[in-house]
Design goal:
The protein has 518 residues and is an all-alpha fold. Helix content is 84%, strand content 0%. It has 20 helices and no strands. Helix 4 runs antiparallel to helix 5 and helix 5 packs parallel to helix 8. The chain is globular and about 60 Å long. It is a multi-pass membrane protein.
Length: 518
């Protein structure tokens, strides 16, 4: 893309017109599908990794990962996603006003803030990892992999996974899709080769002592993709391919030591940290509830079989059920992109329409995925050959775990939309209230079941009730936003009646003019 300001303004204007005037379903799918494909790719990586490790280590993989995956999500995924969302919202306002220079400056602040936080978190997690391993009884086979992901996860998630947020703001949807696909191909190729070569060649008698192929695949994949994204953010491409970045930053400017400790940088670090922590609280609730359930099962259940079945229920809900959280997250990415510009243009009715149709999309697609899990042996494909799992299928609650995960996954779109609206409009108290209610629900439900039901407790209900709590609270706030937007729509509706005869072409022209004149 050229650096000519007029061309930049023209492209942004066209982008804004698409967000504000085209069919809502078409717009949501156009911006959501790349995230859906990228998310499905990540889920596929997790499923493939589970297949290899269960084949090698048996069901001890489930016991270990029922604790490690939630902790990794809390410490290395939630915070990077939160500060990226805050960056998207701030940059979205700037881009809707064609302030590309300020958007580039904001990306510098975001990058420096993320790097400083990554260093702090890396040092902190490295010193704390031993405590976590002992507390949650993580097996020796999985400890190295856990420590590596815990120490470096914040950094690589910020410069790999979370970069999709920037690409989305720049309307570089193909790049969002490519990032997810490339990550999947590299990881799956390395992990599959290592496990098949070392495990398959020597037979089951010579079992590996750790899941080092997964660790190696993680390190190499993240090294390649993180380096690629860092260079891409500075405008470097392979073979001279022209890129479509709306704002470009040089590596020298991004990582200048002098600018790291400037007054503006330190202020931005404080802002991103505060807002990131506030926005992270809500997304920490579910993995926290999973950890509470696993710990309660390990301390209150007597029978080894009951412990295994109970933890496997939780594992299937959270690990295999992660596919149900892809659709709400992806649709919300499109919603954030469009709602920022719609608010700038006072298109309140369109925001209400996006909320309704976004919910319908999540409901329909998660319903289809749930039916696939019911009628196709998806879980069996990845862990069905294990003898312990065959026994679990008789006594466990696999179908209920998937059903519960599908239900709350569809409802999660309400939470995602409520959180996004609250942040866009600076109503952070909304996200805090939803988060506090969700965390209190998880703690009280877990404690109540542990105290009153002992080793007969059904901890799947804790996860179900915890998610339903946030869904219900989010629904209340969305209704309040609906009422607010309906009030704003009165003036918009009057203006539409006056200009109705001008047709769709004139409508697009007006939107283009509004954006161009900002």
């Amino acid at each position: 893309m050229t650096d000519n300001p007029d061309v930049v303004k023209s492209e942004l204007s066209t982008h804004g017109v698409f967000l504000t005037t085209h069919n809502v379903l078409k717009m949501l799918f156009s911006y959501g599908v790349p995230f859906i494909i990228s998310g499905i790719c990540q889920v596929f990586i997790d499923y493939i990794s589970a297949y290899f490790q269960i084949s090698l280590f048996g069901m001890s993989f489930i016991i270990a990962y029922a604790s490690t995956i939630p902790m990794l999500n809390i410490f290395t995924m939630v915070m990077p996603m939160a500060i990226t969302t805050y960056f998207q919202i701030k940059t979205g306002w700037l881009l809707s006003q064609h302030k590309t220079e300020l958007a580039a400056e904001q990306y510098e602040y975001y990058t420096r803030s993320a790097l400083i936080l990554a260093i702090i978190f890396t040092v902190g997690f490295a010193s704390w990892s031993t405590f976590q391993i002992n507390t949650f009884k993580i097996g020796a086979q999985f400890q190295t992999n856990y420590i590596v992901q815990l120490v470096f996860g914040f950094f690589v998630n910020t410069w790999n996974f979370s970069q999709s947020g920037r690409y989305n703001m720049e309307s570089r949807r193909l790049l969002v899709f490519a990032r997810g696909l490339i990550t999947t191909i590299i990881f799956a190729a390395i992990e599959s080769f290592c496990y098949n070569f070392f495990f398959g060649k020597f037979g089951e008698e010579s079992k590996l002592e750790s899941n080092w192929p997964t660790t190696l695949a993680y390190c190499l994949t993240q090294l390649i993709c993180t380096t690629w994204n860092i260079l891409l953010s500075a405008g470097y491409t392979a073979l001279g391919v022209t890129t479509k970045e709306v704002f470009k930053n040089s590596l020298k400017e991004l990582y200048s030591p002098k600018k790291f400790f400037s007054k503006e940088s330190l202020k931005s670090v404080g802002q991103y940290t505060i807002y990131g922590l506030v926005m992270s609280i809500l997304n920490m609730a579910l993995p926290l509830a999973v950890l509470l359930c696993v710990q309660s099962i390990q301390t209150t259940f007597i029978s080894e079989t009951d412990i295994f079945n109970g933890i496997t229920d939780i594992f299937i809900f959270y690990y295999f059920g992660s596919v149900f959280r892809v659709i709400p997250y992806s649709i919300n990415q499109a919603f954030v992109q469009a709602s920022i510009v719609c608010m700038k243009l006072n298109r309140w009715a369109r925001i209400r329409e996006m909320i309704l149709k976004g919910f319908i999309i999540a409901l329909v697609f998660n319903g289809i995925i749930a039916l696939l899990f019911v009628f196709l042996p998806i879980i069996d494909v990845f862990i069905g050959t294990n003898k312990e799992f065959q026994a679990y299928k008789i006594n466990g609650r696999m179908q209920e775990a998937i059903l519960y995960s599908a239900i709350v996954g569809a409802g999660q779109i309400l939470t995602e939309l409520a959180l996004s609206l609250s942040v866009i409009q600076n109503h952070f108290i909304v996200s805090v209230l939803i988060a506090i209610g969700k965390i209190i629900q998880a703690i009280l439900s877990s404690y109540n079941l542990k105290k009153n039901n002992g080793d007969k407790a059904d901890y799947l209900l804790v996860l179900l009730f915890t998610e339903c709590n946030s869904i219900g609270t989010s629904l209340i706030f969305l209704i309040m936003y609906f009422i607010k937007f309906k009030f704003f729509c009165k003036e918009e509706g009057g203006n539409k009646k006056k200009s109705k005869s001008k047709g769709s072409t004139q409508k697009k022209k007006n939107a283009d003019e509004i954006l161009a004149n900002e």
